[in-house]
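Section 5.1 Outputs to date
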Amino acid sequence: MSVSAGSLPSPANQSAKRITQENAARLAVLDKAYLAVNIVYILVRFILQYRSINWTETILYLFTVAIESFLYVNLYKMSRPRYDPGGILISSGTDLSQPGLVSYMFDYIYVSWLVHLLSLLTKWAWALYLAIPVYLAYTFGPYVLQFIRSQTGAGAAGSGQQAAAAAGTVGDAEKDKKRQEKKERKQQRVKYSR
């Protein structure tokens, strides 16, 4: 029995298949939770508690579920594996367990679900959405401040840096001159040999 080199699974292909399976499992859970939370909210809020609902809450729900749905669809698109016509996996898609933008997308969806469920109990649950800009300010604030300081400080510090550079070149020229003189003196010394 002979095995061709092309049929052996490579470590990279095994990793891609693992990522594809993990993404599929994670999206299956996301599907169920997405449907469950939104069906519960619609059932309770718009059917059982229809007398207490107002336009503000309806608009808030529709706006937040639109963002949630947009992120949900993008997660699907990003994680979609690609296959060649022969059925061989070309790309596993984006790994949904990676940190960064994907993680922030999941975080928004989770916060959205929490707010939707808690808003069935109290209207103040919508204030939990303020955690998102607070978190963003906490995470990215130092980078933004550093960027702003570098932009505003560049004009004032630029003229000072130019003056220091000019003074530095004069100082460097003097040092180079002294080094050259020392080198010449060493070359002029008489060398004794045995």
